[in-house]
Predict the structure.
Amino acid sequence: MRPSGPLLDFAGASLEERDGRGHVNDSTAIRVLLVDDHAIVRRGLRSFLDLLDDIEVVGDAEDGVAAVAAAARLVPDVVLMDLLMPRMDGLGAIAAIKQAQPQIEIVAVTRFIEEEKVTAALEAGASGYLLKDAEADEVAAAIRAAYAGEVHLDAAVARLLAQRMRERKTQPEPVEPLTEREREVLGLLGRGASNKEIATALFITERTARTHVSNILGKLDLASRTQAALYAVERKLV
């Protein structure tokens, strides 16, 4: 296992940054920022992620204020964001980062399943939602999915959202603007499918799948695949 880089004090928080000497400088690696108010959690995540060739931890922060500053300075590809933190919580940090740098993908991480938190995080711009007891491989999968522009929800979270939506909706709302094929694609988006998985399921090319997704977002006035997935769950297309 590679040793961690030096501890630095950045924006009033403990921030650990890598200068490239302790990590293979691979331009194809996914640059990740870790945000959690517990140092032991950050160290645990780093110790695992440092073993992966396609992921590079570029820094970590202990609260939302430091996270926003670190994201501006380090410009990571993906942020793993704890939701319950001092000074600025994860929801505030997600919104601030997405407003300033919408290209950065964010995976929300928390210990508890709370529908309001899940919905708020996704609406703020998170492209994934994990529980803190997630297996290490699932954390890596969520990072890779977010980097690829896909939605990754913890299985328990996905079940909760689907259950709550079904309880609130007795009849599915019509999705009139969409073609039958687009409805099929939307249903797959609701299951978190990637463009490649959509193409395989529907026997179409990946390029055609991307076109369908783009058309769906435009017709339904949605900003992201995450919003499309929630839309599909709400209307029982999953």
The first strand starts at residue 7 and ends at 10. The radius of gyration is 18 Å. Residues 1-26 have pLDDT under 50 and may be disordered.
